[in-house]
């Protein structure tokens, strides 16, 4: 009796006649070779104070790894909300670095450049025959979007709220079916093997204004107000006014990134200094900062500007000091920096300490 006669489907064993993808599917082996645990280790080392958001990222990565996603949609669609400089875009860079070994291994579109409705065609390419148009071309990096059989593609729509309504509507088919047909009609970009991320600051200003009003109340009253109306609720109300329900319903996960808190600042400075030392490695140089020198970069920091401002302060205040010293003392490979009365001091003789 055959399987068709019995009504029972018989799974055939994997053989050499099957393709690699078929063999993986038949034996239940995940086709993606990245490890969610390794991705999360890097994220938790570099994204500070965003545990709730990272926990959701971890769930998403496991679903993608297990290949449970619908074959007719993108692998995942994630919207990341929060104020500037809290790690939203950096999260995507680190995921790309963990999976591909390069933090730029993804397609990024700055939605701020698509603020006017007449720029909507830039996503799909200008109509055929228009002056300056390139038929079959668009803003998308198809290689980064497509990924491969063993690694997912990665797409980032950055600062989503700054795009025109027409552009947002143009994305709905991408989020729904995982396909985008170019205006010229000659090509369709496939997002079905792609993890799509979107970032937005929408509602962040309203949430900050709400917190500033509460700051005049006694501590217990502040806690009661936040329990009744949390900042997340404020942000979601603004989000619902900004984006159509049809668009929001196509998003799998909405993550809320919190404002950078003061207790996270020392660790964020350490991360920026580690990046600087990595850049100095090709010159066989290294810098060491005392606790006082590190504190110089975060004391008095306005948390509204997030971690990005810390990096800018290091670039504008520390890097010039290093550049001048190394140019004048090319033989010096290690520097020890201190801070006294708000002034950074170079102490090369103490480079072996700390």
From TrEMBL:
<dbReference type="InterPro" id="IPR003593">
    <property type="entry name" value="AAA+_ATPase"/>
</dbReference>
<protein>
    <submittedName>
        <fullName>ATP-dependent Clp protease ATP-binding subunit</fullName>
    </submittedName>
</protein>
<dbReference type="GO" id="GO:0005524">
    <property type="term" value="F:ATP binding"/>
</dbReference>
<dbReference type="InterPro" id="IPR003959">
    <property type="entry name" value="ATPase_AAA_core"/>
</dbReference>
<dbReference type="InterPro" id="IPR050130">
    <property type="entry name" value="ClpA_ClpB"/>
</dbReference>
<dbReference type="GO" id="GO:0016887">
    <property type="term" value="F:ATP hydrolysis activity"/>
</dbReference>
<dbReference type="GO" id="GO:0006508">
    <property type="term" value="P:proteolysis"/>
</dbReference>
<dbReference type="InterPro" id="IPR001270">
    <property type="entry name" value="ClpA/B"/>
</dbReference>
<feature type="domain" description="Clp ATPase C-terminal">
    <location>
        <begin position="260"/>
        <end position="346"/>
    </location>
</feature>
<dbReference type="InterPro" id="IPR019489">
    <property type="entry name" value="Clp_ATPase_C"/>
</dbReference>
<keyword id="KW-0067">ATP-binding</keyword>
<dbReference type="Pfam" id="PF07724">
    <property type="entry name" value="AAA_2"/>
</dbReference>
<feature type="domain" description="AAA+ ATPase">
    <location>
        <begin position="74"/>
        <end position="253"/>
    </location>
</feature>
<dbReference type="InterPro" id="IPR027417">
    <property type="entry name" value="P-loop_NTPase"/>
</dbReference>
<feature type="region of interest" description="Disordered">
    <location>
        <begin position="1"/>
        <end position="24"/>
    </location>
</feature>
<dbReference type="GO" id="GO:0008233">
    <property type="term" value="F:peptidase activity"/>
</dbReference>
<dbReference type="GO" id="GO:0034605">
    <property type="term" value="P:cellular response to heat"/>
</dbReference>
<keyword id="KW-0645">Protease</keyword>
<feature type="compositionally biased region" description="Polar residues">
    <location>
        <begin position="1"/>
        <end position="19"/>
    </location>
</feature>
<dbReference type="GO" id="GO:0005737">
    <property type="term" value="C:cytoplasm"/>
</dbReference>
<keyword id="KW-0547">Nucleotide-binding</keyword>
<keyword id="KW-0143">Chaperone</keyword>
<dbReference type="Pfam" id="PF10431">
    <property type="entry name" value="ClpB_D2-small"/>
</dbReference>
<keyword id="KW-0378">Hydrolase</keyword>
């Amino acid at each position: 009796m055959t399987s068709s006669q019995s009504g029972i489907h018989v799974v055939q064993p994997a053989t050499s006649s099957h393709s690699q993808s078929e063999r993986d599917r038949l034996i239940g082996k995940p086709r993606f070779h990245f490890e969610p645990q390794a991705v999360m280790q890097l994220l938790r080392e570099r994204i500070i104070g965003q545990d709730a958001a990272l926990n959701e990222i971890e769930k998403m990565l496991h679903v993608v790894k297990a290949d449970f996603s619908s074959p007719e949609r993108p692998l995942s669609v994630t919207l990341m909300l929060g104020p500037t400089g809290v790690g939203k875009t950096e999260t995507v860079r680190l995921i790309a670095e963990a999976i591909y070994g390069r933090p730029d291994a993804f397609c990024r579109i700055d939605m701020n450049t698509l603020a006017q409705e007449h720029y909507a065609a830039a996503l799909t390419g200008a109509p055929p025959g228009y002056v300056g148009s390139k038929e079959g071309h668009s803003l998308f990096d198809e290689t980064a979007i497509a990924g491969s059989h063993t690694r997912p593609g990665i797409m980032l729509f950055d600062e989503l709220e700054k795009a025109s309504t027409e552009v947002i509507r143009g994305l709905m088919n991408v989020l729904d079916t995982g396909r985008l047909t170019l205006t010229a009609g000659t090509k369709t970009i496939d997002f079905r093997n792609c993890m799509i991320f979107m970032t937005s600051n929408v509602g962040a200003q309203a949430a900050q204004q709400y917190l500033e009003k509460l700051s005049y109340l006694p501590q217990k009253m502040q806690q009661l107000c936040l329990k009744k109306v949390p900042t997340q609720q404020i942000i979601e109300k603004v989000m619902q006014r900004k984006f159509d329900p049809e668009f929001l319903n196509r998003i799998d996960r909405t993550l809320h990134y919190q404002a950078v808190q003061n207790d996270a600042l020392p660790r964020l400075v350490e991360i920026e200094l580690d990046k600087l030392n990595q850049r100095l490695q090709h010159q066989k140089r290294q810098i060491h900062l005392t606790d006082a020198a590190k504190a110089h970069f975060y004391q008095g920091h306005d948390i509204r500007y997030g971690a990005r401002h810390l990096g800018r302060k290091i670039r504008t205040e520390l890097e010039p000091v290093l550049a001048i010293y190394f140019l004048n003392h090319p033989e010096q490979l290690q520097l020890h920096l201190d801070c006294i009365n708000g002034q950074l001091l170079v102490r090369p003789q103490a480079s072996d300490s700390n």
